[in-house]
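Quick bug: DUF4085 family protein output formatted oddly.
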Amino acid sequence: MRYRTKEWYELCQQTGLHFGMRVHRGTYELDEALFLRRYKRKEKEYVEFQREMYNTDPRFLLEQNGHVFVPAEKFLSGNEISEDDKKVYQMPAEERERIEKLIADYDVRPPFDELQHRIAFKEMQEWDYKHQKERLPKEIYEQIADIRVFTLGYCTREVMLQLKKQSAENRREMERVSNEYREAILAQDIPDEIRSRVQFHDCTVMELLTGDEVVIRFDTRGGFTNINKLTLVAPEILKQDGEIVGSYWLYQELYRIDNVYELHVLFDGENMPELIVRCADILVEEE
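Here's what came back:
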């Protein structure tokens, strides 16, 4: 990837460091009683939310059938959306079967297990405590008296101001790179027909075959397309990094170089796998 790199993606996740945070005057020093009070409040909110989700009837998922949507690449291109760009989602039979199974399971579900979710909340908080140091700039992290209280969403006024400032700087950098990417892509001599073939955002890679062709098969239930097979003709693999099968197609960049296509893909999975392939043609189909 030249623009939508792992670093750029991580930067995107840090444009709202202040989201969900509240200023609390008790956060200037370590206060165990404050932590326990706030923990109980947040735990209760979490459990109630999980209870609501648990008791949500999945029949509403059937309403997706026939929904009109615009493919992500068309939406992000910045070009005017035409009627031809719009797609109508036709729910595959296997997806309908999956939803019907959810409905059947919902109708015989056991009572909500509050203890299980209290344990899950505790584990989630402990994971967050450990990863705040990686997430936050060092100069901000060192000003936090109790990382547990910060993780629950409370901080000093000074830290809040710095979080907002850092978020704004991150957003400006993210947008700068995004604009450079958009200009670079628009400058490529690639027909819209070819661009439109590569629309697999949020689809799960189920199979990756290499040889005379690179063939990728997808589970498209999480994406915005029914096309589940991508074939790269006469490929030259320039980079194949990480475990791609089982990961989600996140972003792609498509270039025209020396009369061939060069496809860069960043996946959402462990260590964010990446694939770069040069090929003579790009074919897609629904199997």
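Actually, after a second look the formatting is fine. Residues 192-285 form one domain. Closing.
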